[in-house]
């Protein structure tokens, strides 16, 4: 199917919220990881979100180029072509963009989408993330207001972060402390600044102990009930019922989360969960197995010629893609999106 239109993306998010499931949002950095993500979603019968970070976008542009916009445009063009062959809807998203990279990443991409929409075409990406976790909340929301207006004009969903995700991703590191927990006051400030959809649709990454990186179950102290409290605070501010879920929530830093923590977060309104660390390992592990198992074919040992079929990048690449696709199926099952595709 073609990349999701803004209308289809809205239907995807609405369906997730109404039916209490969430979409895995898979970070990719190459055509191989993109193909693995597409296969994983198709195998699961789930629509999904595929995204690039600032570092992923640089990598996609080429090692001597390192241009985030070039890499993002190339990624979106390739994804638009290959996604046509899969029976699920895929939305394209740009991940964490801190303040110092807005002018070299999100804002130029918004301008490209605005030009496309003016010509009657779809935007290049369906959503963009502004990561204002490193600046004071007031400044975070002021920038979010500006970006939300531009996103709305280009038929794009904005994602924001209110609170701090611990750990490190793409060079952005935060300490693990009490700042990892969003307060009800933060939630109220967000709806006061951005509204409840009338100014443009946005997703909110509230933090409830989330940490980027690699952690064993139990090492990260998640408190999903914070999401429930935030929804209630926002609902009260908007004059809605106590059981309303005004925020479309995003779950960051989920590696090592228990099945119950994921389930609770989805129950409280999470519609998108970022999955990166786990899929990186799922992609790389079969490559390591291939190299160790076939070392005498991959390497030209003792003057021999090796085995071309074993060092052909497609040999280990197929195994890597299969491993990553299987992990994405697992993510879809954990988030209850398996079998829910609007295109199925």
Describe this structure in words.
With 344 residues, the protein is of the alpha/beta class. It has an 8-stranded parallel β-barrel, surrounded by 9 helices. It has a two-stranded antiparallel ribbon with strand order 6-7. 47% of the residues lie in helices and 13% in strands. The chain has a single domain, classed as Aldolase class I (TIM Barrel, Alpha-Beta Barrel), CATH 3.20.20. The radius of gyration is 20 Å and the shape is globular. The chain contains 13 helices and 10 strands. The termini are close together.
Please describe the topology of this protein.
Layout: H1 6-18, E1 23-27, H2 31-44, E2 48-52, H3 54-61, H4 68-82, E3 90-94, H5 106-118, E4 127-130, H6 137-153, E5 157-162, E6 167-169, E7 172-174, H7 184-194, E8 202-206, H8 225-237, E9 248-251, H9 259-267, E10 270-275, H10 277-293, H11 295-298, H12 308-311, H13 313-334
Parallel strand pairs: 1-2, 1-10, 2-3, 3-4, 4-5, 5-8, 8-9, 9-10
Antiparallel strand pairs: 6-7
Helix pairs in contact: 2-13, 3-4, 6-7, 7-8, 10-13
Keywords: Glycolysis, Lyase, Metal-binding, Zinc
Pathway: Carbohydrate degradation; glycolysis; D-glyceraldehyde 3-phosphate and glycerone phosphate from D-glucose: step 4/4
Binding site for Zn(2+) 2: 131, 161
List keywords for this structure.
Aldolase_TIM, TIM Barrel, Fruct_bisP_bact, lyase, 344 residues, 13% strand, 13 helices, single chain, zinc ion binding, alpha/beta, two-stranded antiparallel sheet, 10 strands
């Amino acid at each position: 199917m073609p990349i999701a239109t803004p209308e289809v993306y809205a239907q995807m998010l609405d369906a997730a919220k109404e039916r209490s499931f969430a979409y895995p949002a898979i970070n990719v950095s190459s055509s191989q990881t993109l193909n693995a993500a597409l296969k994983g979603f198709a195998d699961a019968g789930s629509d999904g979100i595929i995204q690039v970070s600032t570092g992923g976008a640089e990598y996609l542009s080429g090692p001597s180029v390192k241009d985030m916009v070039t890499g993002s445009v190339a990624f979106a063009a390739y994804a638009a072509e290959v996604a046509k062959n899969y029976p699920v809807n895929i939305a394209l998203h740009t991940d964490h963009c801190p303040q110092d990279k807005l002018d070299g990443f999100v804002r130029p991409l918004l301008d490209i989408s605005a030009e496309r929409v003016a010509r009657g075409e779809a935007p290049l990406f369906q959503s963009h993330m502004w990561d204002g976790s490193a600046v004071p909340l007031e400044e975070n929301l002021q920038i979010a207001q500006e970006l939300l207006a531009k996103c709305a004009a280009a038929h794009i969903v904005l994602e924001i972060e209110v609170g701090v995700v611990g750990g490190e991703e793409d060079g952005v590191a935060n300490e693990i402390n009490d700042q990892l927990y969003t307060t009800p006051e933060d939630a109220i400030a967000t709806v006061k600044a951005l509204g409840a959809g009338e100014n443009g649709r946005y997703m909110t990454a509230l933090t409830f102990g989330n940490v980027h990186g690699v952690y064993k179950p139990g090492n990260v102290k998640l408190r999903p009930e914070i999401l429930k409290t935030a929804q209630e605070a926002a609902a009260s501010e908007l004059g809605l019922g106590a059981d309303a879920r005004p925020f479309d929530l995003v779950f960051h830093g989920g590696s090592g989360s228990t099945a119950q923590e994921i389930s609770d977060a989805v129950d409280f309104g999470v519609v998108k969960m970022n999955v990166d660390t786990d899929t990186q390992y799922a992609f790389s592990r079969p490559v390591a197995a291939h190299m160790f198992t076939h070392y005498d074919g991959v390497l030209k040992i003792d003057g021999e010629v090796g085995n071309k079929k074993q060092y052909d990048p497609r040999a280990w690449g197929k195994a890597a893609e299969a491993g990553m696709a299987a992990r994405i199926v697992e993510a879809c099952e954990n988030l209850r999106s398996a079998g829910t595709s609007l295109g199925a």
